[in-house]
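Support case: pyridoxal-5'-phosphate complex. Customer-provided input:
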Amino acid sequence: MDNAATTPVKKEVLDEMLPYFTEKYGNPSSIYRLGREGKAAIDDSRNKVANAIGANPKEIYFTSGGSEADNWAIKGVAFANKKKGNHIITSKVEHHGILHTCEYLERNGFDVTYLDVDENGIVDLKELEEAITDKTILISIMFANNEIGTIQPVKEIGEIAKKNGVFFHTDGVQAVGKIEIDVDDLNIDMLSMSAHKIYGPKGIGALYIRKGVKIHPHIHGGAQEKNRRAGTENVPSIVGFAKAIEMACENIDEHNKKLIKLRDKLIKDIANNISHVKLNGHPEKRLSNNVNFSFEFIEGEALLLSLDMVGVAGSSGSACTSGSLDPSHVLLSIGLPHEIAHGSLRLSLGDFNTEEEVDYVVENLITIVDRLRKMSPLYENVKEDK
Ligand SMILES: *Cc1c(COP(=O)(O)O)cnc(C)c1O
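Agent response - structure generated as follows:
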């Protein structure tokens, strides 16, 4: 239940990819048949990706994934528009692909405004408008949050950006395949996408760049991706990404119906069976597959390890990978105190999860939370107070 971290490659996706490793291995830049075959596969894939988000294929640039797309959008626009201004607006709950890129730009002469969010994780549109100055060149606010699932008012943000002549980028990695996206309707100038969150391979994604957006090339070298992102194309992965996004966007509603049923059952069963819990993120404006709870008097890390022992994969908000014990910047931004943020668990559902699995997770959670709380002196105090 950690599908927001990554997903398995679907069989249909793998099947489309396989020939491009072996018999159709040509370099798409070669003029002979084998090369042309690769080129045709890329063209076809670009059409599919463009189709999924209402874009023109000419506006799709393949990257190594969401992080690269985020880096390119921010740095590319910043350096290309330096003469106009040096101010960027983003939010405090972005993925590190955005936040760390913005911090890098701050060390290189740019000014960044990090907007606050409310207790549900949503940015304030009035604050956004007020933050715009004549030096503002870019607004980057994520479509849907990877930790708490909150969906931002993207269309309204796009309108504000357009009205003020500022480019608008959104990290759509978690939104693609779960929310209907039409870049024109939503006034999106740039959109980051990644394949491995939607049953495609890891290491491939794309940046949508609207025609007319002033942006620097990202990798210098050959003429691939219209001279903007050099390097021999990863043909099998591009083909896999295209198949994955096509499948994910085919019938979003039907897809979501199943996920929402599981999500709401998981939320209800946890809230009804475990005391001192809090659902994080917006109750309605929420990704169809996201569940995020804080469990008082518990360490998220201990919870994850105990769940792992019974075969359940989840995620906590703490940045354990970096070896730090800082709680998640997202949970702190929605106003959770450190100790509550520390006891948080994200469960994210996917196409392969079942109702039985939800029951299994809740059963185990009840036992684990009970056991961990019995070891907590703080919890003992609460019980005695009652
Ligand atoms: C996973 C994720 C990324 C990074 O994508 P990669 O393809 O793993 O580099 C960026 N933004 C969000 C919101 C994500 O969930």
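Residues 65-67, 70, 95, 97, 142, 146, 171, 173-174, 194, 196-197, 205 surround pyridoxal-5'-phosphate (CB under 6 Å).

Case will auto-close in a few days if no follow-up is received.
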